[in-house]
Specification:
Shape: rod-shaped
Order of helices and strands: HEHHEHHH
Helix content: 55-70%
Structural class: mainly alpha
Number of strands: 2
Number of domains: 2
Oligomer: single chain
Number of helices: 6
Largest sheet: 2 strands, antiparallel
Radius of gyration: 56 Å
Strand order of the largest sheet: 1-2
């Protein structure tokens, strides 16, 4: 069902002595924001006056609208001869009093609307600030994760170097032990006195030992 139009709202307001946003919203069955928009338009158009401190708009009457008829006052009772004549009270001329002074009315509703907008803007600023803080925290977490991964890679590389050095040391010790075994088994100085194959032993030592020294030099040079 479509919302009542602005003209419908004006007709409804014309029937009221004064109007506020809640009354118009309930009377037309519309949202509070739409009723407020209608009333602000009516204020600019002169249909209603300025809002007062309590949130009411006085409804302005059209110039051609007839004023309400006053009931005729009953005629005074006839004065009797015995009744003393009272002095007539002086009548105040309405024209001497002048037109009624218009009391300036505050824009309480507009102030409330502006206060609400300002609070919404402040909440938006706080939300943006919190988003920036969250982004900074995410960036800091990414930096910490990257640093942790870098330290992890360094630790793994150091562990690999240690294992390599240990393996090289083990290989060196094993090669030294093998060298001692070959020297003890093939060197002529370690041959027993009654060795029958001394010449063969010496020939094998001279053939193998240079190769052993060559392998050892390559191991030292890396």
């Amino acid at each position: 069902m479509p919302n009542p139009s602005y003209a419908d709202a004006v007709r409804y307001v014309r029937r009221q002595p004064r109007i506020n946003t809640s009354t118009l919203a309930d009377g037309l069955g519309v949202r509070w924001s739409l009723a407020l928009d209608y009333l602000q338009r009516m204020e600019r158009a002169g249909v209603v006056g300025a809002i007062d401190d309590h949130g009411w708009w006085p409804v302005s009457r059209p110039k051609g609208q007839p004023a309400a008829r006053k009931s005729a006052a009953p005629p005074p009772p006839p004065a009797t001869a015995a009744a003393p004549r009272q002095a007539a009270a002086p009548k105040q001329d309405k024209e001497e009093l002048g037109p009624p002074v218009a009391i300036p009315l505050s824009q309480a509703g507009n102030h409330d609307h502006r206060d609400l907008l300002e609070k919404l803007r402040e909440a938006a600023r706080v939300l943006m600030s919190e988003r920036e803080n969250m982004q900074k925290l995410r960036d800091a977490c990414r930096t910490l994760i990257a640093e942790r991964e870098a330290w992890k890679r360094r630790a793994l590389a150091a562990e690999a170097r240690m294992l390599t050095e240990e393996a090289d040391e083990i290989d060196r010790l094993r090669f030294a032990a093998l060298r001692r075994v070959l020297a003890r088994e093939l060197h002529p100085d370690y041959a027993p006195e009654d060795c029958a194959d001394l010449q063969l032993r010496e020939a094998l030592f001279k053939s193998i030992w240079p190769k052993v020294e060559q392998i050892e030099r390559k191991g030292r040079s890396g």
